[in-house]
Specification:
alpha+beta, SH3 type barrels, 5-stranded antiparallel beta sheet, about 30% helix, about 35% strand, elongated
Length: about 100
């Protein structure tokens, strides 16, 4: 199963290589945005992508997503992580 993590493009590192910086949960990293820049009906430029929310998978922005959907997905992923921590704690607790 492949999981895309929502992130927001915060700047363009190098337009010639389609490299941008994305922020995911306060962490910034370089990703490739060739799948989302200038490929749809609105033909967005690199600069127009700054501020966009994208689904990131293995260093690539796979698609643009709505900000509300991105925030909901991040909240759900956080809840799942917290649930996993609780399940791990329950398994290791003495009965």
């Amino acid at each position: 199963m492949c999981v895309g993590i929502p992130g927001q493009i915060v700047d363009i590192v190098d337009a010639s290589t389609d490299t941008a910086t994305v922020e995911i949960g306060g962490i910034r990293r370089a990703i490739n945005i060739s799948c989302v820049v200038g490929v749809d009906e609105d033909r967005r430029s690199h600069a127009d992508c700054v501020g966009d929310w994208v689904l990131v998978h293995v260093g690539f922005a796979m698609s643009r997503i709505d900000e509300d959907e991105a925030i909901k997905t991040l909240e759900l992923l956080q809840e799942l992580g917290e649930m996993q921590e609780e399940m791990d704690a329950m398994q290791s607790a003495e009965v």
